[in-house]
Amino acid sequence: MRLLAVYGLFLVAAAAKQNRREDDRCQYCHFLVATFEAGLRRTARHHFAGGDTAWEEKKLGKYATSETRFIETMEGICKKNTIIEMDLFHGLQELEFRCNTLVEEHEDLLEEYYYKHQATNMTEWLCEKRIKLCCPDGHYGKECLKCPGFEISGTVCFGHGKCDGNGRRYGTGKCACDTGYVGNLCRQCAADHFEKSKTENSIECEKCFEGCAGGCSASGPKGCTKCKNGWNETSDGCVDIDECALESTCSNAHEKCVNLQGSYRCECVDGYKRDGSACVLDVEG
Known about the structure:
The protein is an alpha+beta fold. The chain has helices at 2-48, 57-60, 67-74, 95-116, 122-130, 150-153, and strands at residues 139-140, 145-146, 161-163, 175-177, 181-182, 188-189, 193-199, 202-207, 212-216, 224-227, 231-234, 237-240, 255-260, 263-268, 272-275, 278-281.
């Protein structure tokens, strides 16, 4: 039984490692596309000395799909210095090497895109549909199924969570909800939050007042269902009890009381320091 359990853990770890590897390949494909498209923009400007003007294919003429331009574009592919914005690819290991591996595996597709499909979104055409390393945003898994909440609200997990495998060819599609949201779709408020607003395709939750216990129905001290220990229920809602006003609080020699929200803390007065439960003269201070 123990061997079976260990083997099971090994399989889970191996599957997770495979998912990570496939996830990286999708991001490497994104990097490939970013550098290829940067090359197309660079060659267009260089050929016409047109600054940052976005030249349409008809204005580029025969050069738009010439072999010369393809070679010039490929010179910068998979190179970090080809693009300015690198934040999206931060932390990827062997970025240029792994990207070049994809180029070697699929150079025929790059040529096909360049000569026949430049008007098409390259990420969608190459990474999602042809190589099938990625899914469109809001989709996950081998079949690129829709993430929870995406069809209803247009955002994954109703905009309040992350869909496992979003944009990748792996994952469970389960929502990991943001703080304050719960449920399969992240469409409900957590116990210590309340519905600030809700429609058919959206919800906004707000955290309850800090003195609330057992939830709340509105913001502020008056919205509490009941009050936590250390708080009094009054006409103004849950109000902090000032424990320091009680004579028995922090009554040891050279001790003072510091009131906190819902609690208090005993500290030594200036010139004294804590030694166990007593405050003794701080001769070093």
